[in-house]
């Protein structure tokens, strides 16, 4: 099943889009729609034939509080990532080259349409990655580790670290900076999952971190992607260790998201204890 997931997530989209010249937003959304459907099918198979548990055990128990947590995660990421651009502007490492930029290229969509498509795209990304990396991998890791070597608390911590490592490696980090950035992000999303026993908060966090970096604040434009629609299009001139996609400024912004998340969880729960389901974690 895991091999099927890899094929569906990484191979099928490439085959489906081979030779096409779609707008970047459309290409991305098609790729991640295929990945999301594949991820969901694999998780359904794992739940039914391997884990023999309902999908709700993977953090998909929808309730009114689910939308509240999703919304909170989205607002937290939007606010937390907003600190990156002012820091770079104050330091003189960036200038704003364009506002409400629809992108340049022969096949780009109008700004409003491209923004709508990218919104759907990042929602697909957040859904399937959180379902796979947190819902299935973290859940299974906690259950397996607890039954063999560790206490409940130790299994939760080890499960968060293990799933974050798989998440990081799965994104093929090409540098130590990228590895560290992805690892911190994975730890944050894993913690959000175990604190709430739901994928709502991590999906909301993940969705707006991606959307904010790529299309709202243009924090990934250090890659100089003129075809991507951006609400703010910055031009970065500062030292790469600070302003690159996985540089220290964006890393600090993710830490601000983490701080806001901790505050929200304390407000929500009253503490930072794990809320993982007793179905697979007995004593927490």
From TrEMBL:
Keywords, alphabetical: Membrane, Transmembrane, Transmembrane helix
Any GO BP: CAAX-box protein maturation
InterPro entries hit by this protein: Rce1/LyrA-like_dom
Domain CAAX prenyl protease 2/Lysostaphin resistance protein A-like: 116-211
GO molecular function, one term: endopeptidase activity
Transmembrane segments: 28-50, 70-96, 108-128, 149-170, 242-267
Protein name in UniProt: CAAX prenyl protease 2/Lysostaphin resistance protein A-like domain-containing protein
Origin species: Halorubrum coriense DSM 10284
């Amino acid at each position: 099943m895991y091999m099927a997931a890899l094929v569906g997530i990484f191979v099928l989209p490439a085959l489906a889009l081979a030779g096409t010249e779609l707008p970047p937003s459309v290409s991305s959304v098609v790729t991640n729609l295929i990945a999301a459907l594949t991820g969901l099918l694999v998780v359904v198979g794992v739940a039914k034939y391997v884990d023999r548990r309902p999908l709700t055990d993977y953090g998909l128990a929808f309730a009114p509080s689910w939308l509240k947590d999703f919304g909170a995660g989205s607002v937290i990421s939007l606010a937390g990532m907003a600190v990156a651009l002012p820091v770079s502007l104050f330091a003189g490492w960036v200038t704003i080259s364009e506002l409400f930029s629809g992108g340049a290229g022969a096949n780009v969509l109008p700004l409003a349409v491209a923004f709508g498509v990218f919104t759907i795209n990042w929602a697909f990304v957040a859904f399937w990655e959180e379902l796979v990396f947190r819902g299935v991998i973290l859940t299974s890791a906690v259950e397996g580790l607890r039954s063999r070597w560790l206490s409940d608390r130790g299994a939760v911590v080890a499960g968060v670290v293990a799933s974050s490592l798989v998440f990081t490696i799965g994104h093929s980090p090409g540098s130590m900076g990228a590895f560290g950035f992805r690892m911190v992000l994975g730890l944050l999303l894993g913690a959000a999952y175990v604190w709430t026993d739901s994928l709502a908060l991590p999906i909301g966090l993940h969705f707006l971190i991606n959307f904010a970096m790529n299309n709202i604040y243009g924090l990934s434009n250090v890659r100089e992607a003129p075809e991507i629609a951006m609400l703010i299009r910055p031009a970065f001139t500062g030292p790469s260790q600070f302003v690159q996609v996985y540089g220290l400024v964006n890393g600090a912004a993710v830490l601000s998201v983490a701080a806001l998340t901790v505050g929200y969880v304390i407000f929500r729960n009253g503490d930072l204890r794990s809320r993982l389901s007793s179905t697979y974690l007995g004593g927490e």
